[in-house]
Amino acid sequence: xxxxxxxxxxxxxxxxxxxxxxxxxxxxxxxxxxxxxxxxxxxxxxxxxxxxxxxxxxxxxxxxxxxxxxxxxxxxxxxxxxxxxxxxxxxxxxxxxxxxxxxx
Amino acid sequence: xxxxxxxxxxxxxxxxxxxxxxxxxxxxxxxxxxxxxxxxxxxxxxxxxxxxxxxxxxxxxxxxxxxxxxxxxxxxxxxxxxxxxxxxxxxxxxxxxxxxxxxx
DNA sequence: TCAGAAGTTCGACGATCGTCAAACCAACGC
DNA sequence: GCGTTGGTTTGACGATCGTCGAACTTCTGA
Lengths: 104, 104
Fold this sequence. Notes:
Two copies of one chain form a homodimer.
Chain A: H1 15-22, H2 25-37, E1 40-41, H3 51-64, E2 67-72, E3 75-80, H4 82-88, H5 92-98
Antiparallel strand pairs in A: 1-3, 2-3
Chain A binds a DNA duplex (30 and 30 nucleotides) through residues 1-3, 24, 26, 41-43, 49-59, 73-76.
């Protein structure tokens, strides 16, 4: 579990990258869950995909700067970088979270 | 130039699809241009890609429901579906357009 | 009538993506 | 120590994507 936990600084957040990160059903599910429940351990989100795939999606979100990951023992606690996103792209995350349609 | 000009209805707009459509540098350039300049003919946006590629990107935006295309002779006039997007995803487009960073 | 212009469509290509199983690593509990 | 648990990494796979040139369609203007 080397895990650099590399997260971009606020000023390095790239809109294209963030939109790409959000433009996936599984990752959108993760983001919604984090928005509702606050910080979550990586594994406690039900996604219907394998461990490896889940890890991959969390990595994409983290590297896009959407989430913050805190290591604690064997667990990783993941949370939304709401303030950072709001500072860099005001209103964006709110708009994405507002959408109820996609809950299915 | 068969061109169905198929555009989804407001209630059929899908967040994932829209975010995917916006998550590309070229298409983001198009959207910004349309936001600034209003309706534009397809070809009058400088993108640095071939005719075929440009046509492809316009198609993606249209089918995602981001743009409206009006045929007039050999030209296609493309415009942002601002109202529809605002109704379906309040604040989303505004947030995307707000970003100045990406102008390069 | 016919040449040209505006867009689309059709392969084709390399690159990236989402997915998985399997192997791996690091911490915890016994 | 040792097995277990939570998560990552590593290929590998098929699918999708962005790109192009070339052929095509449709309209326009001389």
